Amino acid sequence: MQKLINFPTLSESAFLRYFNFSALYFAEGLAQGMLFVGIPAWMAMQGKSPGEIGSFAVACSLPWTFKFIIAPLMDRYTYLPMGRKRPWVLISHLGLMLSIIGFAFVPDPLNNLNTFMLAAFLVSTFGAMQDAAGDAMAVDVVPPEQQARANGYMQGSRMVGSSLSLVLCSWILNEYSFEASMLTLFCLVAVITIVPIVLREQKGEKIFPFTAGKASEISKDLQISDWKIILKALYKVFRLKNSLLVVILLFITQGAYNFFEHLLPIFAVKITGWTNLHYSQSFATADLIGGIMGMLAGGYLIEKFGKKLMINIYFFLIIMLVVALNYGTKYWQDSEMLNGFIIVYRLINAFAKIGVFAIAMQCCSKNISASQFTIFMTMGAVGSIAGAFLIGPIKDNFDWNNTFIFFGAFIALAWAVLQFINISQQVEKISEIEQEI
After folding, report:
1. CA spacing 20 to 30 A to 429: which of 84, 173, 178, 329?
2. CA 150 distance to own-chain centroid
3. What pTM, to 2 d.p., does this model score?
């Protein structure tokens, strides 16, 4: 008879929960740092047009809109002896590693853009799948009172991972080759995969299919095996006014961020005269600072002062920062000014994301955690694609000042939507729906 491997579980320790989700988001940030920042900056440095860079951004963003397809499968099908969502986390990590290897060996990527974008699409697909599984696991195992702090660690870790890949992989990209850069990324992701391998969701579960263990009663109680019940629960949840408002909030904010953050490397290279390596290092520094501060203070501030109050403050600060950039035209070629702007922006941006994602998580039902939270995040991804599509048309028809005004207007619209969200009412309605299931 096999002996049960006695590793600790997420259900038994708040520290392990924070550590596990920090690790998962760190791995997510490793890939996103290069896909969404490092490679676009490299493309700008190599003379690719805003339209080409925008198309690459769309290819990377598009898989995140498909998460709503895989998420119900995660809720319906799993291998409970290994946990409700952990099997999906492990499958997605394996796919992410294999797709990065394929991405690394795209021949002459800058002159083979169709294949290059297809390979990036595959990497982003498994990154999105890993994100959906990790988010659903967090909704399942993180108590409501720990969700704000958990989101602080998660978003902060993603930014730290992004900064590490930007510094290391961008340097290798410039000094050696694209292939060497992506193989380094593969090694980093592979190391992090050890964490979900050894940390189980509930006590008594299997580490691997061939090791000892069994499904926990908690997982059995949460698991829904009837498609009708899953779809009915989703319908009831998304009929709620606050669910729809959260969807709109995520669509606008993620679209605005993707729009602005794909314009920044173009602005830095074309206007300030930076190289792609300089931009990657600056963005990485900003993400490192923002990530660490997010982990240390982001969740704590939300827990202490409330989600809506703090997000209101962060949105206001982002708008003021963009207004300052818009009126600081004469300083645009000042490298120190741009460095400072990126650091402050990414810090405030990190805190704002922590708050918005914490609202989305709190507004979810555990029974359909993967499906509901993923639909929230998918609408954010649809917003990201909309933001990427706007890059070419807006920049081709407006100067930099008016382009920045568009971003500020998007954030102001998100602020207006936030005022109508009632979190307490949503939690009460969710509880009623769960009792009916």
Report:
1. 84
2. 14
3. 0.74
Half-sphere CA count of 33, side-chain side, radius 13 A:
38
C-beta neighbour count of 352 within 10 angstroms: 24
List CB contacts of 263: < 8 A, sequence separation 6 or more.
Answer: 391, 395, 403, 407
pLDDT one-digit tens code per residue, 195-223: 999 898 888 888 888 888 787 777 777 77
> Whole-angstrom Cα distance, residue 397 to residue 325?
20
- The pLDDT, as a whole number, for residue 437 is 61
Q: What is the DSSP letter of 4?
A: P
CB contact set of 130 (below 8 Å; sequence gap of 6+):
24, 27, 28, 89, 92, 93, 96
The SS3 assignment for 307 reads: helix
∠ CA 78-84-89, rounded to 5°: 85
User: What average pLDDT does range 242-266 have in this prediction?
Assistant: 90
On whether the CB atoms of residues 240 and 339 are closer than 8 A, the answer is: no
Tokens for 120, please give them: 């990036």
pLDDT at 315: 96
What's the rounded Cα separation, in Å, for the pair 169 and 178?
9
SS3 state at 9: strand
For 2-43, the pLDDT digits (tens) are 455 566 788 888 899 999 999 999 999 999 889 988 888 888
**Closest of 254, 245, 225 to residue 72, by C-alpha:** 225
Which amino acid, residue 213? G
Q: Tokens for 35?
A: 């896909």
List, in order, residues 6 or more apart from 13 with CB less than 8 Å away: none
For residue 202, what is the DSSP state?
S
Listed residue (240, 253, 304, 298) closest to 416, CA to CA:
253
Q: How many CB atoms lie within 10 A of CB 334?
A: 13
Contact 200, 70 (CB under 8 A): no
Inter-CA distances, 165 with 107, 226, 277, 333, Å: 22, 42, 12, 27
Q: What is the mean pLDDT of residues 275-294?
A: 79
Residue 227, token pair as written in the block = 């498609």
Residue 306 region by backbone torsions, left for phi larger than 0, else alpha for psi between -120 and 50, else beta: left
How high is the mean pLDDT of the chain? 86
Per-residue confidence (pLDDT) for residue 1, from 0 to 100: 42
Q: How much is the pLDDT for 57?
A: 84
Residue 52 pLDDT class (50, 70, 90 cuts): confident
Are 232 and 368 a contacting pair, CB within 8 Å?
no
